Amino acid sequence: MNFDSDNAKPEGPSESWLIIFSDLLALLLTFFVLLFSMSSVQISKWEAIVESLSENLNPSRAQIQEVDWQNIEAAMVPQKEALSLEYLKKIFVDKLQYDLILRRSSVSVLDDRLVITLPADLIFESGQSRFSGDAYKSMQELGAALQSIQNKITVVGHTDPEPTSGRLYPTNWELSLVRAISVAQLIEQAGYTQNIEIFGNGASRFDDLDENIPLNERYLLARRVDIIIHREDRDQPEDIYEKKTTQY
Prior knowledge:
By secondary structure, this protein is of the alpha+beta class. Helices cover 42% and strands 12% of the residues. It folds into two domains: 16-76, no CATH class; 85-230, CATH 3.30.1330.60. Helix 7 links the parallel strand 3 (153-158) and strand 4.
């Protein structure tokens, strides 16, 4: 049988080279993957390469400046604001008057600070720095009320001029300091997160009390621990007794 040469399909260029080229690319890719798997990559350099490729391959991507991130981070940080002293006074006066143990405590606003005065005989045994059993729960509730405020807090211990017995604390200064530490630790345990300044004044402020008050009452007022709430959160120390505390 003879084929008509006019009906035969013309032979075109062969495309078999594409198969060979594809196999070559696959082999090269496998080779580089093996090299990469056997090498140790520095994360910082790898991230730099990825970042560079991303920027070059996608130049229309939105650019975020460093200052934008700073603004975002600043906005995410909760702002700490000190509460009004008059507002705090109302809260603590209302709270203390219903407490059977602490109702004899006083709350006073002195210029730029609020002072919660806790008579030592209400919360401590005579000559001791541990809380009495009845007072501990009341002090825990007071500490819980203080833990949420952002105002700076200072705790100051005081005593009367009578010398101590010397069995536990040789001087009034040591007794007043340890009592102030006990109160400050309780406030921190309740959840107050800022630093608390602690002072032990001993009997050094006894003469600041109003001389018109009978002597026996002044002795009673002298034995106390003051929780001082400042108007705002301050970094610089200050003289917390610039004026005579004649209100006590």
